[in-house]
Amino acid sequence: MIDSKTLDPSFKFLIASEPGGENIKKCFSCGTCTAGCPVREVTDLYNPRRIIRMAVLGLKEEVLSSLFIWLCSSCYTCFERCPQNVKIPELVNAIKNIAVREGYLPPPMRAQLDLLSSHGRLLEITDFENQKRKDSNLPLIQWDIEDVKKIFEKLGFHHEEKI
Amino acid sequence: MKKRSNDSPFQYTLFLGCTVPVRALNYEISARKVAERLGLQLFDTPDFSCCGYPIKSVHRYAYLLMAARNLALANKNGFPLCTLCSACCGALTEANHEIQEDERLRRQINKDLFEWLGLRYEGGTEVTHLIRILYQAIGRGKISVQVRADLSSLRVAPHYGCHYTKPSTIYNKIEDPENPKSLDELIEATGAQSISYEDKLQCCGGGVLAIDEQVALAMANRKLDHLQKQQADAMVLLCPFCNVMYEGNQRKIEKIYQTEYKLPVLYYPQLLGLALGIEPEELGMKMNRVRTTELVKKINRRTN
């Protein structure tokens, strides 16, 4: 049961002002996105139409705190098929960016963020990896990319702190 | 670096990304090998970082800056970027598109890139994928005439994945995402049969692996199941993350669903290399997690 007093009608405007979320108000809930969604096909935890409807209604905390927004696989099937050009994967991405700013960062994403902000790469490259590359006659790879560390520092990310 | 007249007309800067140089050496080895054979020159740049894609869901602007930095470095060399990973291809193409289309964003990115790293990027770096280069620049005709082995008994299932064709707006609708043909036709150019199967265009599930493994594995399982029904000899793909799902996690999927697939998963350059008569060892086939011995046995070597 939804209690209308807890709704935040400004949530849709917040999403619309976030890059990628601009077209949220064009959605007329036809469900084309959900019908062709490969994630929805294997689990009912994820349902793009439902997420958009909840966002438009103003169920801000429920949407931002829920793990379901992180279940979009970014396959862009709905992006191609949406008759209203809502750009759903971009819209869901905008909601994720807002969720992170509000303090909801899932631990696996935290781990990826830490790796990128401290090394500039997602997978560690030790002497072992480079030896394997050398044995295969492949050029060696650098692990720490100083430029990327700098980008993250300037943007205010510090990997031990909460954003 | 300027193109010299005696150099190959096909010159690219190779963008490896994070996964390929660590977990998909067989992809990199076979890609370099077939490139050499087909007269495609690939240059390496040591200072590329991650493309930026993994950070997009957390902080979109950080992603755009990382991508812009890579694009700026590539621009210095002047050659188009050849990606092997579809997520890198999509992320760099999208960032390129955004930076070129959105003047305000372009100004902001350039201000930060210059102040922080002494770089500028106004656009201009072409981003493409190795498979697109093989299909468009090299072409099937040039590939077919160099085929040295008979692959006609192989039933091969193409897996396009998502970011190679979608979103079609950033790729200027280069290929119909609902009915792509490039990989099918490239498979046929090797002499192998490209088979049709249920859910051919379905996502591998890799995008949610970190968040919910069970969901991701359920997605990958569906396709493996369809392919078993089609008696495919192999799946052929073009993205290291799709490979993580179908090959890297195949044993795990077999355990969960109490079944057995043993479906070889090849990167397209591996299949192409076999057709060109290159030895399996030179294509990194020993690194394939699912054995390819039976598959290789089905290939008839021509003596000419």
Describe the protein.
- The complex is a heterodimer of chains A (163) and B (304).
- With 163 residues, chain A is mainly alpha-helical.
- Chain A has two domains: 4-101, Alpha-helical ferredoxin (Fumarate Reductase Iron-sulfur Protein, Chain B, domain 2, Orthogonal Bundle), CATH 1.10.1060.10; 107-154, no CATH class.
- Chain A contains nine helices and no strands.
- Chain A has helices spanning 11-16, 32-35, 48-57, 60-65, 77-81, 88-101, 107-119, 127-135, 146-154.
- The radius of gyration of chain A is 19 Å and the shape is elongated.
- The mean pLDDT of chain A is 94.
- With 304 residues, chain B is α/β, with parallel strands linked by helices.
- Chain B folds into two domains: 10-129, Glutathione S-transferase Yfyf (Class Pi), Chain A, domain 2 (Up-down Bundle); 149-166 and 175-301, Rossmann fold (3-Layer(aba) Sandwich).
- Chain B has helices at 20-23, 25-37, 60-77, 86-101, 103-117, 130-138, 140-144, 182-189, 213-229, 240-248, 250-256, 268-275, 293-297; strands at 10-15, 40-44, 81-83, 127-129, 149-150, 155-158, 193-194, 234-237, 265-267, 300-301.
- Chain B has a four-stranded parallel β-sheet, with helices on both faces. A four-stranded parallel β-sheet of chain B has the order 7-6-8-9, with helices on both faces.
- Chain B is globular and about 55 Å long.
- The two termini of chain B are 39 Å apart.
- Chains A and B meet through helix 5, helix 6, helix 7, helix 8 and helix 9 of A and helix 1, helix 2, helix 3, helix 5 and helix 9 of B.
